[in-house]
UniProtKB/TrEMBL annotation:
Provenance organism: Nocardia pseudobrasiliensis
Name of the protein in its database record: Pyrrolidone-carboxylate peptidase
Source lineage: Bacteria, Bacillati, Actinomycetota, Actinomycetes, Mycobacteriales
Domain of life: Bacteria
Length: 454
């Protein structure tokens, strides 16, 4: 590894060995859950139905649905009915075109249900309302069903992937950004899925919880109201390389009723503090993502998205980071971070990208620069490291510059969410809930500080 990125899986130390069980929804008591049709059963959290071929392989991420207690995040949040209804409608669809409609509608309902649950508009299940994990695991159950769907009229691999792509974007709110056209300032925030799940399948991500809590809310500022819209992103290299970030953000970064006045990408960072990252680097470290895939080398930008040419090694935050750090410091300290790692030009010959895991050899060649990058230099690690937290910040600010969007924008790292009990069968604990609530509350305050002078 190049360096210990604060959002890397290496920060997570709890390890549990998991067993796979078989579950039928109707047999499990779940508070306020809507029972799935009897035709849908589950192996762990993986749906089983007549139209699903269990000989078809799941992705490494979807395979974690078989890990106890992954299914409980669906059931104990009251989302079992949503999964069962999705599978039933999928099985009843007449073919690919019909399935597109089912996936679009059910994915939008899943996102809205998750937001409503976190914000207290609906009461479902026994898990705390602020939990981001039910949405993540329910989405994976949807994806597993799509991966194994075997209709009478066979679908092509391209069609199947398109259905999964619809699910991935719609159920993360990426197509739900709508500021309503009023006079309020427009602020877009993004969060991430949980990651590091091979170490502990119960892991949550407070950036996702914050995004769900903020979506559609209005912040009162000295300059007037600011409306916040939110979206989530997967912890997967391939989606970023395919341009998911840029395609999700372009509508909010170009002229029109949804053009933002400010934005913040948010992710989980290091222990005990918030960090506001000044500088983002154009380089990926070798840490595995949620599909256990690695990528070492320059971050690829697709040809069909707006960008800056030649592509810069570094981009910078335009958030008022010093003012934000000074205004918000309770209960966690807030640090404005300028540290990066770089190597001088010309770069070594081994910088071309590789997807082979465990080949990182650059730490000794990448000095730590406490006050930001020198000029010229090659990025090895931005302020937020060289995992996907740094990359979403790099992509968002690069797109900002490509589209000449002159607004505050940058990256916020939250503290690590701690407090899970040692017993791996326990999904939560009072300390865990208090810590998440504190992180979400302070994230909201930081966003308020960021837009105070808009």
């Amino acid at each position: 590894m190049f360096e210990l990125d604060r959002e890397r899986p290496g920060w997570f130390m709890r390890v549990s060995r998991i067993a796979v069980g078989v579950l039928v929804l109707a047999c499990v008591p779940v508070t306020n859950a809507v029972a799935a049709p009897a035709a849908v059963s589950y192996t762990g959290g993986v749906p089983v139905a007549s139209c699903l071929n269990d000989a078809l392989a799941l992705s490494p991420e979807e395979n974690r649905l078989g890990a106890t207690p992954a299914d409980q995040f669906i059931l104990r949040a009251g989302f079992g009915g949503a999964v069962g209804e999705f599978v039933t409608e999928l099985c009843g669809s007449s073919g690919y075109s019909d399935a597109v409609t089912v996936v679009e509608r059910r994915s939008a309902l899943l996102w809205r249900s998750a937001v409503d649950r976190v914000q207290g508009r609906t009461t479902r299940g026994a898990l705390a309302a602020g939990d981001d994990r039910p949405l993540y695991w329910s989405r994976l159950a949807f994806a597993a069903a799509l991966r194994r769907w075997s209709p009478a009229d066979a679908v092509t691999g391209t069609q199947r992937q398109h259905l999964i792509d619809i699910l991935d974007s719609v159920s993360r709110g990426q197509r739900d950004v709508d500021f309503g056209g009023d006079s309020a300032k427009r602020v877009l925030v993004t969060g991430f899925d949980p990651f590091g799940l091979d170490r502990d399948v119960r892991t949550a991500n407070p950036s996702g919880a914050a995004a769900l809590a903020l979506d559609g809310t209005v912040i009162d500022t000295p300059a007037g109201p600011a409306r916040v819209e939110a979206a989530l992103f997967p912890v997967r290299w391939r989606d970023f390389g395919a341009g998911m970030v840029e395609r999700a953000l372009v509508p909010s970064f170009t002229a029109g009723p949804n053009r933002v006045d400010a934005f913040a990408t948010i992710s989980q960072g290091g222990p005990g503090e918030f960090t506001l990252e000044y500088t983002n680097g154009a380089f990926r470290g070798d840490s595995p993502d949620n599909e256990n895939a690695c990528y070492l080398g320059p971050a690829p930008i697709p040809d069909d998205v707006p960008t800056v040419n030649p592509r810069p090694q570094w981009t910078v935050s335009t958030l008022p980071v010093d003012a934000m750090a000074a205004a918000t410091s309770t209960p966690f300290p807030v640090v404005a971070n300028r540290v990066v790692r770089e190597i001088p030009l010309p770069p070594p010959a081994f910088l071309p990208a590789t997807t082979v895991c465990g080949l990182a050899t650059l730490p000794n060649l990448a000095p730590r620069m406490p006050d930001g990058p020198s000029t010229p230099s090659v990025a090895i690690s931005g302020g937020g490291g060289n995992y996907l937290s740094n990359e979403i910040a790099y992509r968002a600010t690069l797109l900002r510059d490509a589209l000449e969007l002159r607004v505050p924008g940058g990256h916020i790292h939250t503290p690590i969410l701690t407090g899970l009990p040692d017993d791996p069968t326990q999904l939560s604990a009072p300390e865990f809930e208090r810590n998440r609530a504190a992180i979400v509350s302070e994230t909201q305050a930081l966003i308020g500080s960021a837009v105070a002078d808009l």
